[in-house]
Design goal:
With 372 residues, the chain is of the alpha+beta class. It has helices at 7-18, 71-80, 133-141, 203-212, 266-276, 327-334, and strands at 2-6, 32-38, 41-47, 51-57, 60-63, 65-70, 86-90, 97-102, 105-110, 127-132, 158-166, 169-177, 181-188, 199-202, 219-224, 228-233, 236-241, 260-265, 286-292, 295-302, 306-313, 321-326, 341-346, 353-356, 363-367. β8 and β9 (105-110) form a beta hairpin.
Amino acid sequence: MKVTLERAALLKSLAHVHRVVERRTTIPILSNVLLRAASGGLRLQATDLDLEVVETSAADVTEPGSTTVPAHTFYDIVRKLPDGAQVVLEQTGETGTLVIRSGRSRFTLQTLTEADFPDLATGEMPVRFELPASDLKRLIEKTQFAISTEETRYYLNGIYLHTMEVEGVQALRAVATDGHRLARVELPAPEGSAGMPGVIVPRKTVAEVMRLFEAPDGVVVIELSATKMRFSMGDVVLTSKLIDGTFPDYARVIPLHNEKRLTISKADFVSAVDRVSTISSERGRAVKLAVTEGKLVLSVTNPDSGSATEEIEVEYSADPLDIGFNSRYLLDIAAQIDTDTALLKLNDPGSPTLIQDMEGASALYVLMPMRV
């Protein structure tokens, strides 16, 4: 194998694929990136057996061939080469090494045979549809923060993606919850997605999709089966296993009869919560909301450090209510509100609260209260 390519092109592709590779693994081949040189360019492939990223870089291929080299070492070498440099990758015969040359620099890396490298992308994926990258990013951004990190409830360690009929129209819906808060966002179902199986996309996959498909004007091709999902855009292909579990019936926790409506300035609310929570304990993080007509008083009491209160004007005309929330969860949800005002639908101090941009918004959030 002999390939010549721009350092910038190689670094861009390596930056995408090497992140998948775990730094500590008991299977040596999984520490490596697969390099495959052919007439179409240099194809780089990496996997951790749950997630696989493939990207092709434009390259001058003198001799086709393939091998695997340690991913993180290879990335560090290319990263430290000077801008604008040409990189030559060469493997001759069965030497077991790959020579990397650039200017006066020369590196030799140990290789492992391509035959042992696993291929995650095999198997039928009967469902196929296209989604603008901006829409895919919105589905993830609005729900990612609510993904559970509790490994024992593994079926909550991802985003539940499914289609369903909403007021006579098919919608593609993304849901995430950690048991304390829930995020749900939907958009019109793209052509070809109707009847897709409900799938749980793992947390690591979600993070990689956000990094890989950043171009807002691009279109992502999504293919999936009941066990795997593939995202493709341009020269990048990401294939992932899905979480094998049943997502809970989230509709049961979305309150339908919260009649107490609190309309609030998002900026004022975020600033007030942020200020008073300075006093809260790291473990508790509780902030109390005392709502009366036209007024909201936020307060925090910490026996170890003191107390804080702040008052802001709101639109509220129902019965007075005192309710407590985790301040960090409040701020996480407030960060997802797109409008200048937020609508909170309340019931009583022990019931979940519904938070939206406005009535009928495509994204909604549910937050469980705390005792204060």
